[in-house]
Design brief:
mainly alpha; 14 helices; 0% strand; globular
Length: 252
């Protein structure tokens, strides 16, 4: 109890630090989500390989629920891609959402899963359900994880989740909601963490992208892209907003 108080962690957060392969699970889940949206043959093959490797956990009675949830995510994506019946797609969505709804405390793994499900639903234009209906609560939970004593290893996941969530808020709702969320997140991050120039650049780019009320919106996006363009080549992108989106989502 003294240690958890000193670190500013709840008992569940403290326990999470000692769960075997937590980082490995988060990385596997993140990779699975990422390649599920990719179109190159190598990335398709990677997704297929992950799905095959996870099959051994399907009927496992051991404590392998987190692996099984990644497998359910794979089942969901395959069901959509194979154009199966809505009932089958909804079955996989409900299984993931039931797990999230029962979680009294969202771990970093849960947050990545939450965002992954929202990404799938947004990408394939699926109806709004539990995850979107509870986005306000999810936003508050994510902001609450920005603490001065947060372990450095977890900060990149939180920052990435903030960027991803801002994109989903703008897509599912509106840019104003995304901008307000980012303003709160940046204020907490700047006051709580020793941020890198890269972190600040990501946050500033996201703010610029979603600040539709700025009269110089287009100009500010062009200026932000010009700074990125100094380091990269973007022949495959058609305009500045597309480049900015790719930068924020980690494609470039």
């Amino acid at each position: 109890m003294s240690i958890t108080k000193l670190l500013g962690l709840s008992s569940i957060e403290f326990k999470d630090l000692f769960v075997n392969s937590t980082d490995e699970l988060i990385q596997l889940l993140s990779l699975t989500i990422d390649v599920s949206f990719r179109t190159t043959e190598l990335e398709k093959e990677t997704f297929t390989t992950i799905c095959s490797e996870l099959e051994k956990f399907r009927a496992s009675k051991e404590d392998t629920q987190l692996y099984q949830l990644i497998l359910i995510f794979c089942d969901l994506v395959k069901s959509i891609q194979d154009k199966r019946e809505d009932s089958q797609v909804n079955y996989h969505i409900n299984r993931i959402e039931s797990y999230l709804a029962k979680s009294e405390y969202l771990t970093l793994y849960d947050m990545v899963l939450y965002l992954g499900l929202m990404k799938v639903k947004e990408y394939y234009r699926l109806p709004i359900t539990y995850v979107e209906e509870n986005m306000d609560s999810f936003c508050r939970t994510l902001l609450a994880k920005i603490k001065p004593n947060r372990l450095v290893e977890g900060r990149s996941f939180i920052l990435g989740s903030i960027i991803d969530l801002s994109m989903l808020l703008a897509s599912r709702f509106d840019s104003k909601t995304a901008f307000q969320f980012l303003v709160q997140a940046k204020e907490k991050i700047v006051h709580s963490w020793k941020v890198t120039s890269r972190d600040l650049e990501l946050l500033e780019c996201a703010l610029v992208l979603h600040d539709q009320q700025d009269q110089n919106h287009t100009q500010r996006i062009q200026e932000a892209v010009a700074n990125i363009r100094n380091r990269r080549i973007f022949e495959e992108y058609s305009d500045e907003e597309e480049i900015m989106m790719a930068f924020l989502m980690g494609s470039i």
